[in-house]
Amino acid sequence: MSTENTTPEPVAQGTEKPEQQFGHIKSFVHRRSHMTPGQKQAIERLMDQWSLAYQPRCLNYEKVFDRQAPTILEIGFGMGETTEKIALTRHEENFLGVEVFNAGVGAMLKRIEASSLNNVRIIQHDAVEVVKDMLPANSLAGVHIYFPDPWPKKRHHKRRLIQPEFIKLLVSRLQPGGYIHCATDWENYAEQMLEVLSANPELENTANDYAPKPDYRPQTKFETRGLRLGHGVWDLVFKKKKE
Q1: Helix, strand, coil share (%) of the chain residues, nearest 5
Q2: Which has fewest Cβ within 10 Å: 29, 32, 75, 137?
Q3: For the chain, what are the domain ranges?
């Protein structure tokens, strides 16, 4: 699909000093993908207005969004259908969407313009590095990770995004009482998510195991088709303990 936007840029306004970097196995592979003319035009016209360049500096959400509001991190928003619907209904919150693929970024930019979404910003970069280098500790109200790449072959499971170290990192960026909401249509990945999230001592499950789909997460066309064919979908919602 696309390539990461890793070109060094001047430090953006509203950023502070980062934490130390560490290596990780990327959970995505760059593939060639077709971008529509509309997506290309959206990137050319709207990228500077609604996106933030990756920087090893902590963001100041108030400056980035031009207001004080709870901030939700959306990791891997795909073509932006779900992010758009959630941001429209939860307009009192900020949404920081992270995606690596150009087609998805272009599609999301089109949605931002069409729906006048002033509460969405985009970072086109590897999510692990964004969380590690750009998000202040104890700053997020929530994290959404919907249908991440399941890497179904066992030898590729190490590439799955939901791993103990990444969840530990995410939890460090959550406010007490903040939540992590994951969803997947791969049962084996759902089992891994449940195991990893349950093992983190700072998190507590909001359900006995898998959670009912929250009303705020819209059901996508792909998901609806899968459910009609008898495929399962599993939601997990964990909250950071309040001490």
Answers
A1: 35, 20, 45
A2: 32
A3: 37-240
Look up residue 230 and give its two tokens. Answer: 């008898």
Active-site residues, by number, are 149
pLDDT digits (tens, 9 = 90+) for 35-86: 999 999 999 999 999 999 999 999 999 999 999 999 999 999 999 999 999 9
Provide the pLDDT for residue 34.
82
In terms of CATH, what superfamily is 37-240?
A: Vaccinia Virus protein VP39 (3.40.50.150)
The pair of structure tokens assigned to 80 is 């932006």
Residue type, 69: A
Q: H or E segment at 97? A: strand 94-98
pTM of the model: 0.87
The token pair at 124 is 């086109």
C-alpha dihedral (199, 200, 202, 203), degrees to nearest 10: -70
pLDDT the model gives residue 220: 82
